[in-house]
Amino acid sequence: MSGLTLKLSPNERILINGAVIENGARRTSFTIKTPNTHILRLKDAIHPDDAKTPVSRACYIAQLLIAGTTDPDQGRKQLIVAIEQLSQVFDDRDSRLLLTAASEHAVANNAYRAMRKLKELLPREARLFAAQDQRDPVSRTTAGTVTRTASMN
Prior knowledge:
Layout: E1 4-8, E2 13-16, E3 19-22, E4 28-32, E5 39-41, H1 54-67, H2 72-87, H3 93-107, H4 111-119, H5 122-135, E6 138-140, E7 146-148
Antiparallel strand pairs: 1-4, 2-3, 2-5, 6-7
């Protein structure tokens, strides 16, 4: 049984089965031998208040699965639906490859790898919103709805 080896930077924090663990002042590594342990590096975590865009919300769903704080079957279904919805917007080749990989990982119950692929879409999403803002000023609410704002001219 080989396990998962984690290498932590000084003072890095991780979540293991709901417990926050902080590394000491030196780099360290250790191996998790127990299968199906829920592990999330807190530097990779998205705060719920920051999950305001479609991609960040999909990442947040994956994060909940990784942390083990949601029903695995329901969370996986939500993640797959979120990825499918993203595929309706991101139609370039590179984004499609990322979404296909994320979907395959989600179907295979590997939320961490799905989240990593989805996070690669965050800069693309930011560029799309920036381009939209230049063409048509809008404001986004935390619910993700888009409303037209009045011009200040």
